[in-house]
């Protein structure tokens, strides 16, 4: 007797999760998806507009989850007070844990859950893997549909006999010999898990998916309780251009904070925008995004500045009071222009690995 499995998709208010909701509705209309949004109380108005537009397009309500539901304060303000005004940071992301993960896990309880995550095919990162054994993550935009915890189990060396049998059953006769050759080669320092995975995916993504699904039936992952899974034949890989196309063509629209706004400094023109959804004071913002907030939403910038007390700052080694000084704003814009004009590539790389790439910030990290 199979147990009921919930299929859920978290909407952050950003481009990727919104596009994923549109994509799945269009391509897999029979998938019974539930949608949720973790509201911190500190989102930009544009985020709430995306939620409203999506509800109209999907024809479904998006469940709004809030931490500290019994508190009279916004979820974020409740926890700031609870933590003694200690602000979240890259080193202590309590906001993700308390405002997003905990409300999500309370919402699903102990239900078997498949969570769909909008990490794109042109991104080189893994999504968050829940510590709850009842939750399994799926990545429809990537060539590799499966999470790291699944891949590491199916490709381990003592599973080779299963791979041989399963690939023999599912692979097309024209490819079966090459696939079996790749599947039987054991992992080693010279043949890594990533190399083996990419080889098998390149030979036939759909075949690999069917083998993984067959393997999952022998495990306790949520998909072991499903009689079928419609995404097994999916071989789509979607990048950033595909995401914007989906949003525009659907009528949901691109969140307005992604729209580039022109600025000029010392006679040189450039453009800036926000690169992520999430709280307006997200500590993952680049300094140029703080300048964007200062100039496009000055009221919110000053509200963010009011949180900086007792030595706690949003930006490492710099207070917003210092960042907003005219000479500092000019310097930040100049640095940004140099970086985006192809100069100082090393600096841009360092920024990327520190987590300031174009992602959806903490919102992209849940389940």
Give the SSE layout.
Layout: E1 5-10, H1 15-27, E2 33-38, H2 45-58, E3 63-65, H3 75-82, H4 94-108, E4 112-116, E5 135-138, H5 148-154, H6 160-170, H7 176-184, H8 193-203, H9 205-216, H10 240-250, E6 261-265, E7 268-272, H11 287-296, H12 298-306, H13 320-323, H14 326-340, H15 345-356
Parallel strand pairs: 1-2, 1-4, 2-3, 4-5
Antiparallel strand pairs: 6-7
Note down, in words, how this protein is organized.
By secondary structure, the chain is an alpha/beta fold. The chain folds into 3 domains: 167 residues, HUPs (Rossmann fold, 3-Layer(aba) Sandwich), CATH 3.40.50.620; 80 residues, no CATH class; 109 residues, no CATH class. The protein is built from 15 helices and 7 strands. The chain has a 5-stranded parallel β-sheet. Strand 2, helix 2 and strand 3 form a beta-alpha-beta unit. Helix 7 packs antiparallel against helix 8 and helix 8 crosses helix 9. The longest helix is centred in the first third of the chain and has 15 residues. The two termini are 27 Å apart. 36% of the residues are buried. The C terminus is likely disordered.
């Amino acid at each position: 007797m199979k147990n009921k499995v919930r299929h859920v998709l978290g909407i952050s208010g950003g481009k990727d999760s919104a596009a994923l909701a549109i994509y799945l509705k269009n391509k897999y209309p029979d998938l019974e998806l539930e949608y949720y949004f973790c509201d911190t109380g500190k989102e930009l108005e544009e985020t709430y507009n995306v939620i409203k537009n999506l509800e109209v397009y999907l024809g479904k309500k998006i469940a709004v989850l809030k931490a500290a539901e019994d508190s009279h304060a916004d979820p974020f303000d409740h926890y700031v007070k609870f933590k003694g005004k200690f602000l979240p940071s890259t080193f202590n992301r309590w906001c993700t844990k308390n405002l997003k993960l905990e409300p999500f896990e309370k919402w699903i309880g102990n239900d078997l859950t498949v969570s769909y995550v909008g990490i794109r095919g042109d991104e080189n990162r893994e999504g968050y893997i829940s510590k709850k054994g009842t939750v399994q993550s799926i990545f429809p935009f990537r060539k590799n549909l499966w999470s790291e915890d699944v891949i590491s189990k199916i490709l381990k060396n003592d599973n080779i006999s299963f791979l041989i049998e399963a690939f023999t059953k599912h692979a097309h006769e024209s490819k079966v010999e090459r696939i079996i050759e790749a599947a039987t080669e054991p992992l080693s320092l010279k043949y890594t898990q990533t190399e083996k995975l990419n080889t098998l995916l390149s030979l036939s993504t759909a075949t690999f998916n069917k083998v993984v699904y067959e393997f999952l039936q022998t495990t306790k992952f949520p998909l072991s309780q499903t009689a079928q899974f419609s995404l097994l034949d999916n071989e789509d890989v979607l990048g950033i251009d595909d995401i914007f196309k989906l949003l525009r063509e659907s009528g949901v629209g691109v969140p307005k904070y992604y729209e580039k706004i022109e600025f000029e400094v010392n006679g040189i023109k450039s453009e800036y925008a926000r690169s992520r959804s999430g709280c307006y004071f997200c500590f993952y913002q680049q300094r140029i995004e703080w300048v964007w907030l200062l100039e496009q939403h000055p009221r919110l910038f000053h509200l963010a500045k009011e949180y900086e007390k007792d030595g706690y700052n949003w930006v490492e080694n710099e207070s917003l009071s210092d960042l907003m000084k005219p000479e500092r704003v000019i310097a930040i814009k100049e640095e940004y222009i140099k970086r985006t004009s192809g100069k100082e590539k090393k600096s841009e790389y360092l920024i990327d690995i520190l987590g300031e790439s174009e992602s959806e910030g903490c919102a992209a990290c849940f389940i």
